[in-house]
């Protein structure tokens, strides 16, 4: 009986993981810019402030305040392949990266065209 219960728990966990990944994908594909962050993360604040300063109104998902936050964070771990999945920035339905990628894109001049292409900027 113990083995059966463990198998059910594994199946439920896998199902929750798939749902969280689908939730991340759905949010990313239905919004021009999505930021998955934690409310107390300083790097998340940097990402949000940069986007706001450019005139972008991103969809922000605070994982520490979301009911499925832990499961979505696990999905972001898999998606990003890094030890620090938050903040995670999606532009035009595609995973851009974290704070380093966002800042590098801004510095090298590729961020604004990317945001315009995604419909997040009109100017």
> What is the annotated CATH architecture?
3-Layer(aba) Sandwich
Number of domains: 1
Helix content percent band:
55-70%
CATH topology call = Glutaredoxin
Strand numbers in spatial order across the main sheet = 2-1-3-4
- How many distinct helices? 5
Shape: globular
Task: Note poorly predicted spans.
Answer: 1-12
Q: Provide the β-strand percentage band.
A: 5-15%
The fourth-level CATH homologous superfamily is: Glutaredoxin
Structural class: alpha+beta
Beta strand count: 4
- The helix/strand order is HEHEHEEHH
List keywords for this structure.
single chain; 123 residues; alpha+beta; Glutaredoxin; four-stranded mixed β-sheet; 5 helices; globular; disordered N terminus; redox-active center; Thioredoxin-like_sf
Walk me through this protein's architecture.
This protein is of the alpha+beta class and 123 residues long. It has a single domain, classed as Glutaredoxin. It is 56% helix and 14% strand. It has 5 helices and 4 strands; from the N terminus they run H-E-H-E-H-E-E-H-H. A 4-stranded mixed β-sheet has the order 2-1-3-4, with helices on both faces. Helix 1 (2-29) crosses helix 3. The model is unreliable at 1-12 (pLDDT under 50).
């Amino acid at each position: 009986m113990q083995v059966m219960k463990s198998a059910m728990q594994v199946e439920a966990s896998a199902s929750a993981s798939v749902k969280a990944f689908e939730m991340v994908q759905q949010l990313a594909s239905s919004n021009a810019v999505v930021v998955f962050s934690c409310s107390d993360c300083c790097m998340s604040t940097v990402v949000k402030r940069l986007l706001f300063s450019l005139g972008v109104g991103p969809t922000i998902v605070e994982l520490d305040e979301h009911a499925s936050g832990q499961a979505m964070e696990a999905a972001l771990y898999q998606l990003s392949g890094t030890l620090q999945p938050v903040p995670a920035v999606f532009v035009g339905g595609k995973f851009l990266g974290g704070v380093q990628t966002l800042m590098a894109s801004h510095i090298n001049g590729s961020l604004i065209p990317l945001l315009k292409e995604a419909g997040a900027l009109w100017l």
